[in-house]
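name: query_chain
kind: protein
chains: 1
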Amino acid sequence: MMKKVTIVGGGLAGSEAAYQLLKRDIAVDLIEMRPNKMTPAHQTSHLAELVCSNSFRSKLPHNAPGLLKEEMKRLDSLIVKAALQAEIKAGGALAVDRELFSREVEKILGAFKHFNLIQEEVLKIPEGPVIIATGPLTSDKLFDDIKKQLSDDAMHFFDAVAPIITKDSIDMSVCYVKNRWDDDHPGDYINCPMNEEEYKAFYKALTTAETAPIKDFEDNVFEGCMPVETMAKRGVDTLRYGPLKPVGLRKDKDHKPYAVVQLRKDDARDSLYNLVGFQTHLKFGEQKALIRSIPGLQNAEIMRYGVMHKNSFLKAPNHLKRTYQSKLREDLFFAGQITGVEGYIESAASGLLAGINMARFIKGQSLLKLPTTTMIGASADYLENANVKQFQPMNANYGLVDPITEKHKKKERKEHYMQRALKALNEYLEAHDE
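structure:
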């Protein structure tokens, strides 16, 4: 009789874990509560819906998120595979058409005859082999049961979503297409330039605009998803050194902008663009007025407004092994942002390792503990061994991996990290029959 695993949550981590199990001849019941019950941030009932940005960040293999994707390719990642199929141009970033991406994930999973999608809300941790991959927007009743069983030891932070506008509503007599520093490439980003007067008027409007009330978010907001209005309050030039940085974005030699709002393509039809770095929780009316005050966006048609939502996660060092197996019971695994990883590709990587290890657990094999010289292994090790009193969600970064001890030139450091990681991963997998 074929073994079966229940996966709760059809996001990036749950979908990736399902694929890893299915390809190893283990049946999967994937339970997703949408569309019967929606979250504060999701818009559709599709698997692996991208809620915030449509970017998986850098695809350059010597950068930390790029290395993570290279390691995942070696392990035959569903999410990386689907992202490459749905890719749209975004300079050095891997950006995707959201709809095509989800459709590709659903197509690949649906091709397995032992894949069963169940659309209902789960109120308690199921019995039997189960992976909880419900993400940071886990429903209240299930999260209460998780806290009850693991101990009331959960945390949360807030992040925000950027608005999306139609391309046809952008005034291209004002805006221009260009990638940062790239004068030879036609460009993938639309740039809205501001002079000093325009920027200061925009800054004043932004910092005095009314926000949607969310209790206590200011003291617990994730740095990588900080609302643009919160960032702006750190100082008048903060945005000019952050998401509105004009460096490398001259329209031509005669036009040097004081600040630049960048727009990134959001779909393969080239009809929708999101405002890069413009996560916000301003009231919708304020968002509309502010966006239309940006040069070139005076007629912007807003298809989705920015929103803020609460993300919940566990104190992983108290509850998880670096294999993503629960310390509470051996047939319970966790994956995705509920574990304390942060970011799309990091969430998918945790689902990949949780899925592989669940398969190995069911087959009576030793679980994989990938080397801490690899990005996947180092991220998992952080969840198990971080200082629990200071534990916070973490993106992939080279501070997580073992430091390089041999001498090298500073500019070659990332290349050394990459080569060492891929070599260590290959050797480890060869030794463990993966």
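note: The two ends are 24 Å apart (CA to CA).
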